[in-house]
């Protein structure tokens, strides 16, 4: 900075130092408040009418250009102030190191020293930010005139870019290397420094929620084993605003409507290698829903027809603005369906300080009659307009509804096609019309994935996939992938359209080829599956998927290294051969979880029904149902889940195959090995092969909680209790001796350790069977699993 200050001062004083004053003529120059004039001659009287103007010293810039910049011409009378202004204009152009005016009678000589031309621009010392990225930040360009002021601004831009990436101590120094012909190389010397991490995040003023819980609610994380790979432990000042908003949402969604973030301080440590982040907050009191009432003075609107929607909010529960907003959206939708498009639900909230409740009166009132004139979409160079328009449930000519606009905005963001989405409404051609402007910024949607997983039972599994989520800008997904492990190889192709025929219907097709040699059953399977499907919503929180599946399946007995078939149960040997299956599959899903990623409340229900027999060689009905609920304790530090799952297979033909029946064990029933329980060949007299069952039921209870370690380590604990059974078999060989056909319950309990690491989430399950069938069931005391994507 000192260098640039000296340079600027030198340029400012150059006309004072170089102007020549004769005894007969003086030029008054006013620079920075300094007045210089000829000795004994009044300033006001100094003026001249040049008969000639000569430019000297210029090499690249034409004299005519310099005269144009100075705005001087012969035959015109100029005062001292006007001549000074000409000097200022030439200096301000940035083309010259110095400008000297010599006035001698009617002759003016302009002597200039041109600034050098930039020959090239280079960067030194940069490793984290490449040359291409830095070149896009600087305004100085090669073959342009060098400007010290512009070079300083460029250095600041580069330093800012490093600061945003977490290197707040980075320094950038511009230097010039002189070349021949008044040329220079402009070099930005970068000292990147280390990434400045967040060493500690603290909160003051929090009484209801612990620091651990609040740290989980914000985007910034403390430095830890896993956080450094995600960059969330890097200090980025702009991220603090997001953190404050996340904290406000966290508290307000739990009834703390007066919550405020008083201040956020970020202090460097004494060693200047990290930041200490401190949030000062005021929680306020927690408020609860009071009375919920629906009123309307609109003709024809019967509030009793809409009161059933109020049941989603329970009086006495903590106030949650999300629930109220969902209720208002549902009422607006019901009003539109009832042909009241301009009647909207408007909440009036009354605060009761003594009871700490919020009474909500929802008025169904008529608003201004505004129609959608048009929807303008900009920024989508690849994505087709219709893909964006399909996310709007209103079209040109419909009644304008601000909530529908917000919902459409959320749906556009949810596609993942755009890095930013901005939707604004403005007045159209009349006050009764509105134009919706959609401004998007596209982002890459193609992925090449190399992934891996490992478990103590399956070993190493390697995945490779190529996926495009916005194929040809149509919002369609095209995927090709493969999987390879010690006992399975597969190749799959998928194509899916989430807005088939521009409607709220998804459609797609999946084709899979798989070869498997399971380690627990001595068979080899080869499958080709073709599965077209389509899905559609059947409610606000539910959807239905309908699929047709054609499967060609071949079963053979595994062979050893010498080509000899392994010993197999007679029941399994009866399944050897090839057959075709043709079936219809219906899958219903109802999701009321409060989060898809990390739920702490709500529940989810799913049911799948498969009917086989539309041609092919198999006729059966296969049903499975799953229900899972979540809750939390101690301000969401302990998360509880309970799950019930069951299924039944009924055959109409000759009997079921081993590949159609249900199995439990491993991840589905902890404490038991894969295929560990259920009907199997008697191991005392036969092979002991697992055969599977036609019916199963399982219940799972689990709790996860912090274990007292700093959360930056990413380690949490858990306990679980699993109970279940597999029973019934409709197809056994007369020569088989099958055991464990009953419904005897198996029970296991254990503890879990969850560890969020840079390579993915690790899980360690230590289990102990509490109830099992001795000598028949295959138990498991420990299971380790990891799944990641590079």
Brief write-up:
It is built from twelve helices and 37 strands. It is of the alpha+beta class and 790 residues long. A 16-stranded antiparallel beta barrel has the order 20-21-22-23-24-25-26-27-28-29-30-32-33-35-36-37. Strands 4-7-6 form a three-stranded mixed sheet.
Structural features, described:
Belongs to the BamA family. This is Outer membrane protein assembly factor BamA. Its main location: membrane. There is one protein chain. This protein is an alpha+beta fold and 790 residues long. The protein folds into six domains: 113 residues, membrane protein fhac (Ubiquitin-like (UB roll)), CATH 3.10.20.310; 75 residues, Roll (Ubiquitin-like (UB roll)), CATH 3.10.20.310; 86 residues, Ubiquitin-like (UB roll) (Roll), CATH 3.10.20.310; 79 residues, Ubiquitin-like (UB roll), CATH 3.10.20.310; 72 residues, Roll (Ubiquitin-like (UB roll)); 336 residues, membrane protein fhac: a member of the omp85/tpsb transporter family (Porin). Helices cover 16% and strands 44% of the residues. The protein contains twelve helices and 37 strands. The strands form nine sheets. The chain has a 16-stranded antiparallel barrel with strand order 20-21-22-23-24-25-26-27-28-29-30-32-33-35-36-37. A three-stranded mixed β-sheet has the order 4-7-6. A hairpin with a 3-residue loop joins strand 9 and strand 10. The longest helix has 17 residues. It is globular and about 130 Å long.
């Amino acid at each position: 900075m000192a260098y640039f200050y000296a340079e600027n001062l030198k340029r400012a004083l150059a006309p004072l130092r170089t102007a020549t004053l004769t005894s007969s003529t003086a030029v008054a120059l006013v620079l920075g408040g300094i007045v210089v004039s000829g000795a004994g001659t009044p300033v006001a009287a100094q003026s001249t009418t040049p008969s000639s103007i000569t430019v000297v010293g210029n090499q690249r810039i034409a004299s005519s250009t310099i005269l144009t910049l100075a705005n001087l011409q012969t035959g015109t009378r100029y005062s001292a102030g006007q001549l000074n202004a000409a000097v200022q204009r030439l200096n301000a152009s940035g083309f010259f190191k110095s400008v000297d005016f010599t006035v001698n009678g009617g002759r003016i000589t302009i002597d200039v020293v041109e600034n050098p031309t930039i020959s090239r621009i280079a960067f030194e010392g940069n490793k984290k930010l490449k040359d291409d990225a830095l070149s896009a930040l600087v305004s100085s360009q090669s073959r342009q005139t060098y400007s010290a002021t512009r070079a300083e601004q460029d250095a600041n831009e580069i330093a800012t870019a490093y600061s945003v990436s977490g290197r707040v101590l980075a320094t950038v120094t511009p230097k010039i290397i002189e070349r021949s012909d008044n040329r220079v190389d402009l070099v930005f010397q970068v000292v990147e420094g280390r990434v400045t991490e967040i060493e500690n995040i603290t909160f003051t003023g929090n009484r209801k929620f612990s620091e651990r819980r609040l740290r989980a609610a914000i985007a910034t994380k403390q430095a830890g084993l896993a956080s450094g790979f995600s960059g969330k432990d890097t200090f980025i000042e702009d991220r603090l605003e997001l953190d404050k908003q996340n904290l406000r949402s966290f508290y307000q969604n739990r009834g703390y409507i007066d919550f405020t973030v008083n201040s956020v301080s970020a202090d460097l440590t004494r060693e200047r290698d990290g930041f200490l982040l401190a949030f000062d907050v005021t929680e306020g009191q927690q408020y609860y829903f009071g009375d919920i009432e629906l009123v309307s003075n609109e003709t024809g609107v019967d509030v009793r027809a809409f009161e059933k929607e109020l049941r989603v909010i329970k009086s006495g529960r903590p106030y949650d603005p999300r629930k109220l907003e969902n209720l208002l959206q549902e009422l607006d939708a019901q009003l539109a369906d009832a042909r009241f498009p301009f009647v909207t639900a408007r909440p009036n909230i009354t605060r009761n300080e003594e009871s700490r409740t919020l009474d909500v009166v929802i008025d169904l009132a008529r608003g201004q009659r505004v129609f959608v004139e048009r929807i303008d979409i900009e920024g989508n160079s690849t994505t087709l307009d219709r893909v964006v328009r399909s996310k709007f449930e209103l079209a040109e000519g419909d009644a304008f509804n601000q909530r529908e606009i917000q919902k459409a905005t959320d749906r556009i963001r949810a596609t993942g096609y755009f890095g930013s989405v901005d939707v604004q409404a403005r007045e159209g051609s009349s006050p009764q019309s509105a134009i919706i402007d959609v401004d998007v910024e596209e982002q890459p949607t193609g992925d090449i994935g190399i992934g891996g997983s490992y478990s103590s039972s399956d070993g190493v599994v390697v995945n490779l996939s190529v996926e495009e989520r916005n194929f040809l800008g149509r919002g369609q997904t095209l995927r090709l992938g493969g999987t390879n492990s010690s006992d399975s190889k597969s190749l799959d192709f998928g194509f899916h359209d989430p807005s088939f025929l521009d409607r709220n219907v998804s459609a797609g097709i999946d084709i899979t080829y798989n070869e498997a040699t399971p380690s627990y059953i001595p068979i080899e399977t080869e499958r080709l599956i073709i599965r077209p499907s389509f899905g559609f919503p059947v409610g606000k929180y539910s959807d239905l998927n309908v699929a047709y599946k054609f499967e060609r399946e071949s079963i053979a007995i595994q062979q050893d290294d010498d080509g000899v078939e392994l010993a197999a149960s007679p029941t399994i040997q009866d399944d050897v051969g090839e057959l075709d299956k043709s079936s219809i599959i219906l899958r219903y899903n109802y999701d009321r979880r409060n989060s898809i990623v990390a739920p702490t409340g709500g529940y989810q229900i799913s049911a799948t029904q498969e009917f086989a027999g539309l041609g092919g060689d198999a006729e059966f009905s296969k049903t499975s149902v799953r229900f899972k609920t979540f809750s939390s304790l101690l301000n969401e530090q302990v998360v509880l889940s309970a799950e019930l799952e069951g299924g039944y297979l009924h055959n109409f033909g000759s009997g079921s195959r081993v590949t159609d029946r249900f199995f439990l064990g491993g991840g589905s029933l902890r404490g038991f090995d894969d295929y560990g329980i259920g009907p199997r060949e008697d191991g005392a007299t036969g092979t002991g092969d697992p055969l599977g069952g036609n019916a199963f039921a399982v219940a799972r209870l689990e709790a996860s909680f912090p274990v007292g370690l700093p959360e930056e380590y990413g380690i949490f604990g858990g306990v679980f209790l699993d109970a279940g059974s597999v029973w019934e078999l409709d197809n056994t060989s007369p020569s088989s001796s099958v055991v464990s056909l009953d419904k005897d319950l198996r029970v296991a309990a254990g503890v879990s350790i969850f560890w969020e690491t840079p390579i993915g989430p690790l899980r360690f399950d230590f289990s102990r069977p509490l109830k099992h069938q001795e000598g028949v069931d295959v138990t498991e005391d420990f299971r380790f699993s990891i799944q990641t994507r590079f």
